[in-house]
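Please check this today:
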Amino acid sequence: MVVFDATTLLLLLAPDASAPRDSNGNPVSFAKERIDGLVADLSKRKVKIIIPTPALSEALVRAGAVAGEAYLARLKKSGWFKIESFDERAAIEVAEMTRSAIDHGDKKDGSAATWAKIKYDRQIVAIAKVNSASAIYSDDINLSSFAKRVGLHVINVADLKVPSESLQMDLLNQVTEKKYSSVDKREDT
C-alpha cells in the first residue's frame, strides 16, 4: 500500500490543479500525467492507494462543494483507493511522535509551520505508518520530514516517470505549433 497526500490527490482528481515546485523552484512539468501514470502502474501491480482522511478533507476544501462530491464518488467507486480514518492506532502514533519531539526540546520538531499544520501532517503520517504503507507521495516539506523521521519512503512528483505517451504528445504539439507559427508568419508578409 502507498499513501497520497492532498496535493498528490488533487493532481489526480482536479484537471486544473497547480503543479508542485521542483527542487529549483520551477513547476514540475507533466505533473498530472506523472500522477496518472503512477496510478496506472500501481493498479497494474494491484497496489492499494490509501487516502488519509485529513488529506481527503484538505483536498475537498480546495476542490469546492460540487467538485468535492464528484471526487469523493470517484474515490469510493474505484477499487484501488482506500480512505483511511484517523483512528485509535493513529492517535497513539501521533502521541509518540509528539512526545518524542517534546523530549528532544521542540514539539514542532524543527518545523516552522503552524502548530495546526504540524498536527495535521502528523496525522497523515501516522495513518500511513499504522497501515504499513511502503511509501507516501508528497511534495509537502513538513509532511515529508515527519514521514522520513518515522521511516517512511517519500516520493515527490518530480521523481515520477513521465509516461512516454505524454512526451510523444508534447513533441507532436510542439511540431504542430511550430508548423502553424511559420505558416502565420508567411501570411503576415
Observations:
- The chain has a mean pLDDT of 90.
- The longest strand covers residues 49-52.
- The radius of gyration is 20 Å.
- The domain at 2-163 is CATH 3.40.50.1010 (Rossmann fold).
